[in-house]
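Notes from the 1:1 (GR / supervisor)

We went over the backlog. Supervisor wanted to see one worked example end to end before approving the batch request, so GR pasted a single chain during the call. The sequence is below; no edits were made to it. Supervisor asked that the structure be written out right there so they could see what the output format looks like.
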Amino acid sequence: MLILAVDTTTQTGSVALLRDAALVEQSDMAPPAAHSARLLGTVDGLLARHGLSIRDVEAFAVAAGPGSFTGIRIGLSAVKALAFASGRPVAPVSSLEALAAKAAGPEAALVAPIIDAKKGEVYAALFRAHAGGLKEIVAQGAYAPAAFLDRLAGSESIVFVGSGVEAYDQAVRDKLGRRAVFSSAPPFIAAEVGRLGYERLSRGGGVAADQVEPLYFRLSQAEEKR
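Structure output shown during the call:
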């Protein structure tokens, strides 16, 4: 199955091409202001380098959020348009789960992806990595940083990853001390979105383009003003 995966949820967007769960190539995009201008061109260039066109794509995976409201809309709008035109299925994927998958490994049993949500909040969760994938331990959501860290009781080390780490690293260190481990993995997650998407698609979890919904966890600024 040839899968095109897209992430524009944060400042570091990316596009990836996969055959089943195997990465063919990932193209990274930054800064965020360029996502809307560069996304479709990046997709075209990625496919062209492998002698392919959008007609060859058999399914799509997209980071549906959480993250930047504008970024989420850019990625979802593009993928929904491409999937609608081709009649191909889409696998929406959580950007938090993709971040956790990127940082998980033999030495990272517990992973806490954190995205800076601004306004003194983070999008965050806690996952346990195991042979079968990721198990959600602390629910994905929007949290005050201190409230999220309070949920991380225990004695195990936790690997932190994502833009919220830089914003709140001192709070993490103060709360968890030596239990806190900071991932050095690069922030581009389209490949992980594609692999998680493939897992869903292979289980029949893909949806039609018009059924793809964003994953926000809180109201946008425009909605708050209504």
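Supervisor's comment: The first strand starts at residue 2 and ends at 7.
Batch request approved.
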